[in-house]
Amino acid sequence: MVRDLHPAEIEEVLREESFGRIGCNGERGVYIVPITYAYDGTFVYCYSADGMKLDYMRKDPLVCFEVDRIEDATNWRSVIAWGMYEELENRDADDAVEQISVRLRTIASRANAETMRSYVLRSGQFGVAYRIRLTEKHGRVAASES
Known about the structure:
Elements: E1 2-4, H1 7-16, E2 19-26, E3 29-36, E4 38-39, E5 43-49, H2 52-59, E6 62-72, E7 75-87, H3 90-106, H4 113-120, E8 127-142
Antiparallel strand pairs: 1-8, 2-3, 2-6, 4-5, 5-8, 6-7, 7-8
């Protein structure tokens, strides 16, 4: 059975997951890339090296964000959201990197904690902190019948 997620269920998926995908528009068409993120109820916080994704979002800040939790082909949850890209600087950038670091530490049991910590220590070097202000969210769930 497939149904829409209730708003509280959408928020749960966004808060509990930490890997998603961003879809952005550019001269070569739609570009979809995986990201690591933290979510605070309003913003998705991200950190990235400079490249095509950031170039596209700087030119067209309207993006799509997708997160899913998949157990198997008949048991999954998926959230699609739209929002606006906002590049962060100074204290806001440091705060975003800290939020991502905290989020990754909470899932460290699923990954090497030192690898996760080193990912977010790039602040102030070659990376860019940004956030996506989510303006619209939808979700679906599929559950096999027992």
